[in-house]
Amino acid sequence: LILYKLVKANTEEIEEIKVDISNIRTSITVLKEELEEEIESNRTGINNLSEKIVEINEAIEGINESIKNIDVDKNI
User: Fold this and answer.
1) Could you give the CA distance from residue 65 to residue 9 in angstroms, rounded to a whole number?
2) Which value, to the nearest 10 degrees, does the dihedral of the CA atoms of residues 57, 60, 64, 67 take?
3) Which helix (DSSP H) or strand (DSSP E) does residue 1 occupy?
4) DSSP 75
5) 3-class SS at 19?
6) Which tens digits make up the pLDDT trace of 13-44?
7) What does the DSSP assignment read for 32-71?
């Protein structure tokens, strides 16, 4: 009878542990998916920022060229 109770208690604990492990796996899967979405969103944001930086640099280069070509004597 004691052995039966021990086996039954252990079986119930094992089932609870299995449920806990399943819940942990589900949580890990959800977190992994959320992290992958965040990474992709950040990658897109970084790419957009990089493109804007290139555009800004090109605009600055254009302004610098325009400044070089200003005829200062004409405006004095």
Assistant:
1) 83
2) 170
3) none
4) G
5) helix
6) 999 999 999 999 999 999 999 999 999 999 99
7) HHHHHHHHHHHHHHHHHHHHHHHHHHHHHHHHHHHHHT--
Q: How far apart are CA 32 and CA 19, in angstroms?
A: 20
Paired tokens of 1: 């009878």
3-state secondary structure of 7: helix
Name the 3-class secondary structure at 24: helix
- pLDDT, one tens digit per residue, over 50-63 is 999 999 999 999 99
Name residue, tokens 């992290």: 35
Residue whose token pair is 């979405």: 37
